[in-house]
């Protein structure tokens, strides 16, 4: 019996070396990279404990990642008794990605290292009226300028992520666009930029990518469940559920439809603006900016208007918060820069309307959120186990 | 060098037999049980291919599951050349669970085998006015009667799942209840039933459990993302996202708040009922039943009213569908039994309102959905790898 069992074990080992374990090895490598990215440095025993493998397995993994140039070995640490443990760090500079935000008013290109840290950027103003062909030209120009800048010397860009308003299909085509970008519906962004931007070009919806940025590098990076509310020229929702971006079955998650009454809150801002000598047809963001400025300067009427706007936003969002029960709501988009002038009355009203009020946080990523999310999308692509 | 590497391998094997692999083995066993539950019978090579392990590993797994009584070996199949392959099946009768639905009007108890197939049941009518103490008595009685019935002879119940309206905390306590069950808020269902129902008592929200039933045993068992709309005396939403029930950060996901306008659709039903000699203060379900009956019998006004109700439901749901972008919407609850009289106008209107219309399906689990989901909750508890 003993012998038969031993035979079986031997046979399994042989098989395991050829068949199954490649998947296991790739999963272990992916887990190791996840852990390594979050730490300044690590030893083999620490890695073993953190990803739950034996020390010899962790040793093999580090050797493999060193060979692949994903790790660097650090100088042995001083002090301690006996031979100092070998220490390693993730080689964030082993590759780079681009994150591109194609908007109505700007094209923003960021280059990041493998940790998602921005190392170079270029911003190119555009106008909402630009034709699709010219907008694509602007994207190609902005990418080229970002890569030609002094900060980009020595970069090894491996992939490009692109964020755009509108619904994006899995192939990277803009299916429909709710903002009024002329000719933008139907544009095959992935095809139009491949060859003009480094590596594979992956495309996502701008608000979904801003949500990805918040969940990985923003104020909600510690949170498994949050709802992102984009408050700019329109409202949009992003969902981060169980530690992942929720894209939806058709990739269209986050749309707010007419029945959601999302335009209602803005009316007060526009009315105030019109009553205070504002231009005839302001964008919603410009009207908001004027109200916020006046409220911050002590104008009581503007403060009241901003408060009413925040309450109306909460009214509009309460039903989604109640159904999803997230831990937090993150306010992003241009108007969220009003800070506590917006977030406090918003949180107050939300708490009155929902059975389990979430925390309310304000994004700190500013206008870079979509570009940061686009870079993360590209990183996900680079790091996906094949 | 060769020798040093071999030494390392040996060392790893030794370690792997004591440390890491227990998790891997448990994960493999869980994967094997999942595959086995979905098949009438299986051979070792089939199991190996389906869960992606080597044949010797699959052989070890089957041996282990046989020892634990989770598998039965079948008679060798006839025909074919050479020694017939050993065939196994999941031993569904190795254990049982109870699923209990505690409602305003009924207590329903189901006993199921480890495949979730109902083997015994007991239904005890109750009234909405019952005190909490008497409602708990009714639950204990219904459980005892179900287990005392002839169909329950030889059952080995291992755990009990309970569904109730209201928000349920992780300990099994009813935190708040929106239906008017007197004294029900604050009831510690898990504590009150432990010892009166078999095994560990796990508790969940009724609509969340109905959603679990649809996602595992109902019309959406093939679907990774769907939204369940409960249409009974009130509206409620259940979310099934990426193949799992979405409970929310506080376990409260699925609430429809006042701002959602969920009572609006019912008004037309109640108005029609009042205008056709119905009782003075009908439940919403009773009014709906009368409207459906009249519409099915060819009453044009009733058909119009039902259609308007379906449209108003779609108006109310469209915003959630747009934000979540699910593959399907499942209509459940008493009023969903109107079938296509409800689902067709509902689907039509939803398609007009949302950018990516989902399929619309009608539940076939009837009034058992919450009890079935409660049994699944208990099964999940029994089968969770320790």
TrEMBL record, chains A, B:
Family annotation (Pfam families): ROK
Protein's UniProt name: ROK family transcriptional regulator
Biased composition (Basic and acidic residues): 1-19
Region named Disordered: 1-22
Top-rank taxon: Bacteria
Protein's organism: Streptomyces xanthii
Recorded family membership: Belongs to the ROK (NagC/XylR) family.
Cleavable signal peptide: none
SUPFAM superfamilies, A to Z: Actin-like ATPase domain (SSF53067), Winged helix' DNA-binding domain (SSF46785)
């Amino acid at each position: 019996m003993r012998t038969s069992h031993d035979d079986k074990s031997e046979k399994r080992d042989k098989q395991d070396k050829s068949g199954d374990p490649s998947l296991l090895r790739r999963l272990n490598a992916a887990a190791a990279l996840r852990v390594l990215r979050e730490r300044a440095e690590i030893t083999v025993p620490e890695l073993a404990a953190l990803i739950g493998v034996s020390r010899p397995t962790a040793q093999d993994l580090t050797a493999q990642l060193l060979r692949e140039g994903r790790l660097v070995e650090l100088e042995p640490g001083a002090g301690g008794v006996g031979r100092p443990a070998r220490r390693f760090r993730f080689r964030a500079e082993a590759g780079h990605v681009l994150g591109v935000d194609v908007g109505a008013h700007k094209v923003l290109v960021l280059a990041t290292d493998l940790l998602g840290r921005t190392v170079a950027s270029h911003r190119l103003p555009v106008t909402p009226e630009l034709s699709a062909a010219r907008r694509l030209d602007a994207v190609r120009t902005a990418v080229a300028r970002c890569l030609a800048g002094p900060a980009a010397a020595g970069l090894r860009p491996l992939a490009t992520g692109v964020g755009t308003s509108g619904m994006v299909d899995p192939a990277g085509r803009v299916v429909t666009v709710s903002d009024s970008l002329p000719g933008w519906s139907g544009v095959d962004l992935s095809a139009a930029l491949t060859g003009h931007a480094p590596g594979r070009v992956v495309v996502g919806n701008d608000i979904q990518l801003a949500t990805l940025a918040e969940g990985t590098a923003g104020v909600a990076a510690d949170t498994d469940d949050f709802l992102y509310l984009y408050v700019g020229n329109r409202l949009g929702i992003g969902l981060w559920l169980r530690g992942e971006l929720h894209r939806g079955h058709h990739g269209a998650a986050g749309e707010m439809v007419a029945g959601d009454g999302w335009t209602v809150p803005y009316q007060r801002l526009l009315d105030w603006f019109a009553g205070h000598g504002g231009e005839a047809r302001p964008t919603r963001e410009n009207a908001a900016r004027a109200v916020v400025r006046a409220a911050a300067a002590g104008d009581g009427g503007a403060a009241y208007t901003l408060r009413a706007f925040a309450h109306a936003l909460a009214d509009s969002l309460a039903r989604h918060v109640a159904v999803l029960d997230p831990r937090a709501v993150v306010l992003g988009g241009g108007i969220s820069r009003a800070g506590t002038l917006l977030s406090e009355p918003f949180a107050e009203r939300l708490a009155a309307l929902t059975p389990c009020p979430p925390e309310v946080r304000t994004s700190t990523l500013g206008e870079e959120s979509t570009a940061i999310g686009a870079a993360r999308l590209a990183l996900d692509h680079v790091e996906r186990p094949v």
